[in-house]
Amino acid sequence: MSKEPTSSAAGASAVASTNFIRNIIEADLAAGKHAARRWSGAPGPGAQQLAGALDPARIRTRFPPEPNGYLHFGHAKSICLNFGLAQDYGGRCHLRFDDTNPEKEEQEYVDSIVDSVRWLGYSWDGSIGQGQAGSESNLYFASNYFDWMIEFAEYLISSGHAYVDSQSADEMRASRGTLTEAGADSPFRERGVEENMDLFKRMQKGEFADGAHILRARIDMASANINLRDPAIYRIRHASHHNTGDRWCVYPMYTYAHPIEDALENITHSICTLEFADQRPFYDWLLERLAEGGLLQRPLPQQIEFSRLNLSYIVLSKRKLIQLVEEEHVAGWDDPRLPTLVGARRRGYPAAGFRLFAERGGVSKSDSLIEYSLLEDSMREVLNESAERRVAVLDPLRLIIDNYPAGASEDCFAPNHPLKPETGKRAMPFGRELWIEREDFMAQPSKGYHRLYPGNMARLRYAYVVRCTGFDCDEDGAVSAVHCEYLPDSKSGTAGADSYKVKGNLHWISLADACPAEVRLYDRLFAVPSPGARREGDPEGTERDFRDDLNPDSMRVIQAWLEPALKNARPEESFQFERHGYFVADRVDSQAGAPVFNRTVTLRDSWSVKGGSRK
Q1: Residues 246 and 260 in one domain
Q2: Which residues have a catalytic role annotated?
Q3: pLDDT tens digits for 298-323?
Q4: What is the pTM of this model?
Q5: I want to staple 267 with a disulfide (CB 3.0 to 4.6 A). Which of 262, 349, 591, 604 is the partner?
């Protein structure tokens, strides 16, 4: 059963803790903690860095993804945090690929991650630090540090801090102990330096099968922190690597590689999520041992943890996302319903919306469930400012203006953006027959209905006031057309326009000029805030499958009519479809003359906070 974090509908609970990382950085800068650091211009061990000039970057952070999958919303939070801090404090943020596991990493993911980070608006190239001349590229691969990692491992052996263990994986697991019981020393723990060094070098030469030996740090098998009970630091893996090919048959464990990578790159503040807090004692232990040997320069990197993103109505577990893709609940990793960055981009979420969401959400050390509506609000705010307005009729009903001359046409003018008059206006052709939304007519109106019904008047936005005179039905009794007459002196923008007081204001498209389009109405992928979580009233011990909570209405594909100005919309071009929401031309399928639009987000939140249902 999954545990639900505490809800934080407004995200306000994080505000008080938002600045704890900034407080650490500002205190370090005020104390001049890193002022004497040297930087050779590239990653390297202590001697190389000490031969360089003073580091022009006041701080260095990093975003270190493993290239074994596509980035998701949680990664976006980390990217915005690390790159944003570096920008704010005159520093540098490194993009480092933590590619130490040859069996899971592919160049496809490297390329996708690079593209996603750039799309979010960040760069690892450019000027060095605030107000500094020159530039450097801070794109790195951990696999390029393997030689140094081997050198450091051999130092640990020679200094008595590491040994080769020949137990099986099951034996090591059994001797590790538990959270309440100490572990047991390996029978190979007291091997001498010479034997350990010989075995480790033979491991590197490929003389042993996978799993035959493993290099472990020698710390304390009785430690209360289970991560300090002689953790593994190197294993045998006869596997080809995407970057180094077949050069290596031993590979470092992540917990060994991660702190070394930070130190080689002069990282000052190593910011990661809370699950790494228990690993911090080993992080510090390892760097201290290497610094004692003169292999790293001081001050050493500082690891700082913050809570990962917990957002309602989504799952971020890689295992669960793989299930959704492989079982075809979604149409690939860039499906606009998935919380991947490639999916969000295809849905039309603007990169600036993620940056705004990260800024508003802040960081803290406590888990809280943030309402998905807060992310959508950030997207709406950005799109409201940036997206030009257009008209689309999604559920068309024919409107016939009986007193308008047959075959006649005229232009009406609509602002491209009401908040930006400098964007000008566009012409919308107007004629005798139009498309309107089916919901804008009722044969028998309900109380408070102000749109078209027999005898009532409404304004056609940017055009004329019309009075409904009747309607036609098809053989099934469904309304097939609405008849109106227009008031010639009521055209918007003319002197007589204000003499008619009507409440209904409808959008429309000229039937003769309308552009057909496929429109994909995307919604939340899950129907409940915490997919798979036990709900109130469930019997004790109930286990739910997160897939049972999929929203059956998360995508609906319709054929719609668009105003002619949308016919040649560019892929990834976003618009507000008036009265409907924000839409984007699909970056894969949309073509000039045959547009395909995805709904990015509705104009306002249509989900209730409680119960997970639509309002």
Answers
A1: no
A2: 66, 308, 318
A3: 999 999 999 999 999 999 999 999 99
A4: 0.90
A5: 262
